[in-house]
Amino acid sequence: MTTLTIYADSDARTPLQTLTRFEDIRDALAGIGVEFERWDASKPLKPEDGAEEVIAAYQDAIDKLNRKYGFVTIDVVAMHPENPQAEAARGKFLAEHTHDDFETRFFVDGSGMFYIRSGGKVYMTECTRGDLINLPANTTHWFDMGPKPFFKAIRFFRIAEGWVGKFTGDTIADRFPRFERAA
Length: 183
Ligand SMILES: CSCCC(=O)/C(O)=C/O
Ligand SMILES: [Fe+2]
Ligand code: NI
Description:
Its cofactor is Fe(2+); Ni(2+). By secondary structure, the chain is an alpha+beta fold. The chain has 4 helices and 11 strands, in the order E-E-H-E-H-H-E-H-E-E-E-E-E-E-E. The strands form 2 sheets. Strands 1, 2, 3, 4, 6, 7, 8, 9 and 10 form a 9-stranded antiparallel beta sheet that branches. Strands 5-11 form a two-stranded antiparallel ribbon. Bound molecules: the ligand CSCCC(=O)/C(O)=C/O, fe (ii) ion and nickel (II) ion (NI).
């Protein structure tokens, strides 16, 4: 279930608030400039499907989003627990970083956790199928796909190399609960 848990960035043990209603999550994230939308993600996909199948299934939504936001390129991250690269892939995003581009991700299967740090708080946002999240450029955040990653997300870019992470060097991510997907 899509869930937003908000913490003070100085205290990773005591959540200030936990939200599960879409409207509440959308409004709380809008308060820090993060757009959160729900898009139809009901196309049938097999667990082992990769970029080609995801793009074919979601071409209409991709075209609509490209027209609406002016994206210049997309790619797909499709993770499966048996993927031999799972641990390395998880490690890439586990430390706090920013990007020069917006971070726009449309989850069409599975789930993953964004941790967005803003205004002295951490917004721990579990994204699930149908969630579209859009972090403005330079938003401090990290992302955990969990020890047995399972998700497919379409990534939209406005600038080439916009996905490259700039690490802040802050170890805050190590103090917050890691993502453990509910069975
Ligand atoms: C949810 S897609 C994979 C993670 C990613 O692209 C990113 O930038 C995380 O911060
Ligand atoms: Fe990112
Ligand atoms: Ni990132």
